[in-house]
Design goal:
This is Membrane protein involved in the export of O-antigen and teichoic acid. It is a multi-pass membrane protein. The protein is an all-alpha fold and 416 residues long. The chain is built from 14 helices and no strands. The radius of gyration is 21 Å and the shape is globular.
């Protein structure tokens, strides 16, 4: 497991470094309003990626590693993802075209194309990570980062007096995402044609018995952790959203590290649980919780010591109040990662119904506090609504883990 975690951390570290640098450049280039719109589009993509995780990626990560006959499961989930990406991309393009002015229709297409290729790339990364094959994932991310670096640098040099706008960036992201996964797409094509389609559709019915609860959990988790994005954008405007999201940029690397651990831990913990290695299962979760606590404390201290330089270097007068928001995100990120760690433990046990209830309570607490802040017209404390939701969900999940009774993964036939 350590070797796989190391490879995953290298991969996610690369992604984290690139995303972190890109966001800092955009904050420096763009006004809060444009960065807020960029953040809103990314939030939409994250919501749809979470739905994809619930319906496809998480069942793949939990069921395929624990199955003695995984090929049919792979085939079924591959077809499910193909339909998911096509439906989302086409629906989003049509919807945005009708609800935006004629002059913005190209932007609508660029948003749909960006989100569609992002969903495709995320599925392929998740699928190969679930197989504990991290070299293909690393190659994809290296290719994407290099393509983005060369393209953005080239555009900047050729248009030195004109900054890259949002639509141009979306098309660059779309192109680089698609080019980076061409090799894995060819392998996916071979998987898709390896079994008749008519065998895939009935096969998903058994998977749906568990993924439906994962879908409930994902929906409420998004309300809990990202609902503020849409409320702030609607109530306080894109400038306020841009400031809040700019403050969160510093904690992106920690989220990427958590994602790297999750990609390895989910299939690994599922195997441990299916083989009744409960002591090792519990030990792995505790070690992860301690590690993420230390990571967060070190980052918070580093930001505190470097803050005068960071603020003067990357933020103009439009971001004057950002320091207070950064401090809030430091607290929220710690609780978010502890909640995410315990959530992975429940997913590996196939306890999606109980996990969904935890997120229902968390989302309810987050949206209630966010509603109160919106009525008061106070956007400076919005981030604390996320803290309230994460705290409630974490306490509920800890209670569930302490109550857990050993049980093998069931509910899905291995001969699907």
């Amino acid at each position: 497991m350590r070797k796989n975690i190391t490879l995953s951390f290298i991969d996610q570290g690369l992604v984290s470094a690139f995303n972190f640098a890109l966001n800092l450049v955009l904050i420096k280039w763009w006004a809060p309003e444009e960065f807020g719109l960029f953040s809103l589009i990314f939030a939409i993509s994250f919501v749809l990626m979470s739905l994809q995780n619930a319906l496809i990626n998480t069942p793949y990560a939990v069921l395929v590693p624990a199955s003695e006959h995984p090929h049919a499961l792979r085939h079924t989930l591959s077809h499910a993802n193909l339909y998911f990406v096509l439906v989302i991309t086409v629906s989003l393009g049509v919807l945005l075209t009708f609800i935006t002015p004629l002059s913005s229709q190209i932007s609508a297409i660029s948003i749909a194309a960006f989100i569609g290729t992002r969903l495709l790339r995320e599925y392929l990364r998740s699928r190969w990570s679930s197989e504990l094959e991290f070299k293909p994932v690393l190659k994809v991310d290296v290719a994407f980062s290099l393509l983005m670096l060369v393209t953005v640098a080239g555009l900047s040099l050729n248009n030195a007096n004109t900054l890259i706008n949002l639509e141009t960036l979306l098309w660059v992201l779309t192109t680089c995402q698609l080019l980076s996964v061409l090799t894995l797409l060819n392998l996916e094509r071979k998987l898709l044609v390896s079994l008749p389609l008519k065998l895939s559709i009935p096969g998903y019915a058994a998977i749906w018995e568990q993924s439906r609860w994962s879908l409930v959990g994902v929906t409420t988790t998004e309300l809990q952790n990202r609902g503020y994005v849409f409320v702030v954008g609607a109530v306080f405007g894109p400038a306020s959203l841009g400031l809040i999201q700019a403050a969160r940029v510093f904690f992106g690397p920690l989220s990427i590290i958590a994602g790297a651990w999750t990609r390895v831990a989910k299939p690994t913990l599922a195997r441990l649980f299916s083989k009744q290695q409960y002591d090792e299962f519990t030990k792995s979760l505790i070690q992860a919780g301690i590690a993420f606590t230390l990571f967060n404390l070190v980052l918070a201290l580093t930001l505190y010591l470097l803050w005068p330089w960071l603020k003067s270097t990357f933020f103009n007068s439009a971001y004057e109040q950002i320091g207070f928001v950064v401090a809030q995100w430091a607290l929220v990120t710690l609780f978010f990662q502890l909640r995410a760690t315990t959530s992975v433990g429940l997913q590996a046990q196939n306890r999606f119904k109980e996990l969904a209830m935890a997120t229902v309570w968390g989302a309810g607490a987050a949206m209630t506090s966010l509603g109160i802040l919106s009525l008061l017209g106070n956007d400076s404390w919005v981030v604390m609504s996320v803290f309230v939701g994460e705290s409630v969900a974490l306490l509920y999940l800890i209670k569930l883990l302490r109550q857990f009774a050993p049980q093998r993964i069931d509910g899905v036939s291995e001969d699907v």
